[in-house]
Write a structure and sequence with these properties.
Elements: E1 2-4, H1 5-8, H2 19-29, E2 33-39, E3 44-56, E4 64-69, E5 74-79, E6 89-99, E7 102-103, E8 107-109, E9 112-114, E10 116-118, H3 121-124, E11 154-159, H4 173-184, E12 207-209, E13 215-224, H5 233-241, H6 249-261, E14 265-269, E15 276-279, E16 285-288, E17 294-297, E18 303-306, E19 311-314, E20 318-319, E21 332-339, H7 341-351, H8 356-361, H9 369-384, E22 389-390, E23 395-398, E24 406-410, H10 411-418, H11 424-433, E25 437-441, E26 444-448, H12 451-454, H13 461-472, H14 493-507, E27 512-513, H15 522-528, H16 554-564, E28 571-583, E29 589-601, H17 606-625, E30 630-633, H18 636-639, E31 646-656, E32 659-667, H19 669-675, E33 680-687, H20 688-693, E34 710-719, H21 724-732, E35 739-749, H22 751-754, E36 757-766, H23 775-791, E37 795-796
Parallel strand pairs: 12-15, 27-28
Antiparallel strand pairs: 1-11, 2-11, 3-4, 3-6, 4-5, 6-7, 6-10, 8-9, 13-21, 13-22, 13-23, 14-21, 15-18, 16-17, 18-19, 19-20, 24-26, 25-26, 28-29, 29-33, 30-31, 31-32, 32-33, 34-36, 34-37, 35-36
Helix pairs in contact: 2-4, 5-6, 6-9, 14-17
Length: 798
Amino acid sequence: MLISMNWISDYTDLTGINLKELINKFTLATAEVEHVYEMGTEIRSVVVGEIMSVKAHPGAEKLQLLKVNIGTEIIDCVCGAVNAAVGIYVPFARKGGRVGDRVINETVIAGESSYGMCCSEKELGISEDNSGLMILDKAHEPGTDILEFLPLRDVVFEVDNKSLTNRPDLWGHYGIAREISVLTKRPLKPLKVMDTEAFKELPPVPVTIEDKEQTFRYSAIRIENITKNHTPPQMKIRLTYCGVRSLNLLTDLTNYLMLEMGQPMHGFDNHIIQGIQVKTFPVPVDFETLDGVRRTVDTDTLMICTAQGEPAAIAGIMGGKSSGIGDHTTELLLEAANFDGTFIRKAAARLGLRTEASTRYEKTLDPEMTVTSIKRFLMLLREANPGIKVTSSLTDHYVKRYQDRTINFDKAYVDKYTGIDISVEEIIDTLSALGFAVKYKDKCFTAAVPSYRATKDVTIKADLIEEITRIYGYDNIKGKSNKSLISPIRHSVEREEEYRIKLLLADRFGMNEVHNYIWYDTKANKELGIQTKPNVRIINSVTAENDTVKATLIPSLLGNIYKNMDQIPEIAVFEIGRVAEGFDENSLCREKKKLGIAIASRSMTEKQTFLKLKEVIENLTDAIKNSVPVYLAYNTDQEIEGINYIHPVNAASIMMNEKNIGYFSCLHPKVKDRMDKKLNIAIAELDMVELTAIEKETIIYREISRYPGITIDLSLLTDKGIRYEELKTIISEFNCDYLKSYSLIDMFEDDTLLMGKKSVTIRFEFGSDERTLESKEISEITDRLLVLLGEKGIQLRG
């Protein structure tokens, strides 16, 4: 939001104050200032000029030769403006002067010399109007510098809107002026408004409010005999400097009041609308807004309608094209209203139409501003057009009032939370200057919260502490040591393990962590041919096609790989994020936290990529739980119904403590071909909740034997269907104190050589803590082991 210091100075005296220092102080105390602009510094040596003569240019049809009186001399000028006429006063940039980026020099145009330039409003930065010369009133003599009567020099600062989200009172210049008056300790001048008591006997504007839930207050008045619709230059300058385009007097006034007070207003052409209904429609309606776009307005959106029930405006967002005011409007029905901020925000989101008005309404505006803004509008309109006639009373329907809020606190509370001794007088002065009605009795403060801070901003005692300390100045508070009891904080196992997983994946395996949106990227999934199960959908999603909440992280990770694979030949990414798996019995999303991993490589084979991911998983579980998982064949039909990116063969479920904690797989060939046939990809997804719930294995340490051990590799012939886990179960039945450990070395399958069997090579380590084993003993142990295996149908490969 852009703020003009010239505008602020209307309400608090800034004489002698360093504006840049003041703006910095505003940042520290109130809201962050992003930029400061010095406006009008590019205007130099522009004076009032009277056009004395206008002749056609002999060599150019669209140009004219002017003689311009600037007080001390008459200057020749070549001009192309269509409205140049004898006797009018215009801004004239003299030779050596400057307008914007243009330095004015003597020049020859189509063979004729020109010694200056007559200026339009756009050239002076007053508005976007470049259709002709700016015509000045004749109150100032030719030769007068325009900076003497046009406030083109200004300091404008831009406030970060996010820092004002909780301060609806600061969405207008008057609210900002109130803050600055407190910071400078100078009085705040009241707004000048028109007294409407003289109109109270006139007939009211017919206003019917059907929806009393969303409408808090609705005020309106009727004005006729509007004969002038030209905006004063000062108002145009302020609107332009604050980023609003000047259109006509009536429209500009509504915008001006919105920027000044923070209260949106809307004007209807009274020839078209004589009465108002505020309601919702039972069925969606098509409606053309002021921007010329036809929109479908749903049944939950509040509408301003004519007395006959025809839609005329979307409440709090934008007016309708058919009833809007224009250059030739002579009768005005003016409204200033207050609506439920939440409803306005939701309606704007549904329509995809966020305006300056809706941005303010959604902040929960003060309902007390509606009547004041109408009175202010009337005064400004009468100054610009003295002949106006008010033809109705000021109609005011106050439907819903905010509760008066009073907060009690004592000085001990202030001292405790600020850590400094702020005097009673300073507390009272600060809060009073901010608009709080403060009483101090029996060492206790009572602060009545003003309406413009009571809608949602100031609700508890701590809010008053913030008001006191920010005006006192955070930079004035000197740091000091405090004595307080420190107790240890028990770390969350889940958070600690999550951090260790991230560190391990990033540090040991060089993976990159990513954070994706919580919804599926439908366009990317379609491009890659990825199918996903139907899941929880987002109502009124900003992007209609991206309305399904993710039940798995893998499609997003594949999207990350797809977008980067042309630049990076080897990609390894992971994400820990929340997904939703349908609804629970309370119709709430069943949220789960998952770990997704994806490895993509052009240098490794598919098998190598698959085994690399297996290595990652085992390192991860070993580091976190001191144990490694076992694997089961993935049941493709049951477990991936509606999903098409898991490989039909090269996939495995990950088991720990007999719990399924996830899976890992090669990418399905069909999806792989859509991405890149030469890129081998392996994916894994683990359930973080299940992983966290698994008890950590206790590490048992034993003394290393002083005697050498013996290692024997046995290649065993087994049935093809037997898994290594089953072999481990059989071997565990072998009772031998000298068998220290065993591990899988290799598996080999060949139907021709092994005739339907497979070869499994296992390395056995034997040893004793008391002596060196003899070969004869090892042979006997091995024979006993082979007998046990033989009983289970497992033979030594010859």
